[in-house]
């Protein structure tokens, strides 16, 4: 009886530890989280992979990592030169650059041709799920160019310090 209770306790602790693992973390072995690849001295590709339906949160974490990469390399700002978002390995296009609009367009490609379908949005920004899959793999990829000095006047240009300050996950000690 005592052995069974110890097993139940150990399993409970293990499940609790897994449940408290933060969403924002380095990806290990192609898993969920962030990673970056240095392309040139001032060009990086930053990726964030998540599980769920919140494309906005995945984009924010990719932006956060881009800000951290910028600051870690001694630069002040970054410009997004290319962005792609895929849900379950299918590229998602919205009418806006920063976030998906009220509906999503998904492009399917085969060896012969590509076609695009429009899908109504399946979740509100408040995080209320109203249909569709709840277990999708979302991957955001950003190509960024790092810079110092005067920041370019562009909607794709971000102050790295502001991005990190505004998007860094809050911890219990922050509250």
UniProtKB/TrEMBL annotation:
Q: Which residues are the signal sequence here?
A: 1-19
Q: Does the keyword Signal apply?
A: yes
Keywords, in A-Z order: Signal
Q: Which NCBIfam families match?
A: lipo_CC0125
Q: What's this protein's name? A: Lipoprotein
Q: Which organism's genome codes for this protein?
A: Pseudidiomarina insulisalsae
